[in-house]
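Chapter summary example.
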Amino acid sequence: MIHNLSQQNSIIGNFISELRDEKIQKDPMRFRMNLSRLATMMGYEVSKKLHYVAQTVTTPLGQAEVNIVEEMPVLATILRAGLAMHDGLLHVFDRSESAFISAYRKHASEEEFSIRVEYQAAPNLTNKTVIISDPMLATGASMVSVYKSLLTNGNPLKIYILAAVASKDAIDYIRLHLPQNTEFFVGAIDEELTAHSYIVPGLGDAGDLAFGEKL
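The structure predicted for these 215 residues follows.
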């Protein structure tokens, strides 16, 4: 299931607009904040899909029945671009375990590259709900590589993928390689992918915009 949050009017449109705007992008703190706020909104939407159990809470004046999340999801973040989104998700799922994994393009030429995964720190994922966040889904290759690597820590019960902007090609590719019950929450889906595998209009390199250019 794909939840394209740009298809309905909400404040998320403001966040996506500022993330794309090349003038506003010059303020890295604002860029990180918008990714964080977007992820917080997405986390709220994901929370509606989780399992809940009834709990009795004692107040100063009596008792109240409330429904609470039965088990918090694991928050898996792709370094380094996903860190700002991870921060936003922690505002929603403040008791969640976290997983961190690196993934980057190793270029053989301008148009040919492979995905390298070189670092992973994750809890046991067996039968867990896992939220994987990455601002940009261009080809989908990084997300698939990350998912396969995470399987070394156990088979999740459910996967949610969160992204600010995704290409249609990436969505199609990921759906072919991840479990059928995987759900996507994306701020926008762009149709065009260049020969160098960059999303158009996209928003640029999210990692560089959030944390500075890399060598």
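To summarize the output: The mean pLDDT is 91.
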